[in-house]
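Q: How do we represent a protein-ligand complex in a form that can be generated token by token?
A: Start from the inputs.
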Amino acid sequence: MSELLSQIWTPQMQAAFTVVVVLLVILYVLSIVWVVRDAYLRGSAWYVWAIVALVPIVGIIAYCLLRPPMLRIDKDEQELEVALKQRELMKYGECATCGYPVEMTYVLCPNCHTQLKNLCSHCEKALEPAWTICPYCATPVGGQKSRSASSSSSRSRRRTHSERSHASSSDA
Ligand SMILES: [Zn+2]
Ligand SMILES: [Zn+2]
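Then emit the structure tokens for the protein with zinc ion bound:
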């Protein structure tokens, strides 16, 4: 038996064995480093997982089975993407009549000319149909609209009239 052992346990064999042991130790250390890094990136308690990873082989298998499902960076990215998409949805919509993609600021559908927005009679900003007051200049929408519109038009009419009279007076 010891003869057989000495036959197998040659210096070459010892060297090979040492190399294997060193490789295993390196793998073990690397697995701990990977577990700690991965658990940290996934936003979980990496120090707990470091202790788990100290158990050779079983530790890393346990971590692979039980690790938190998503990388923290991925989670952040996904949340950002969802927020971006929501903003995009808020910015763009569809024409209720023809389904043509329209931007939030459009007043008319460029395809079928359906009126999408009311215009503020005072500041002429686009208003949502549901709004009862202009959020830009606090002018009420609806009943006051026609009155203020007519007053502004009469004002402009008056202005053009005075301009005309001014022009005629300069002519004279
Ligand atoms: Zn349309
Ligand atoms: Zn306004």
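The helical segments are 2-8, 11-41, 46-53, 58-66, 72-91, 143-171. The pocket of zinc ion (ligand 1) is lined by residues 95, 97-98, 100, 109, 111-112, 114 (CB under 6 Å).
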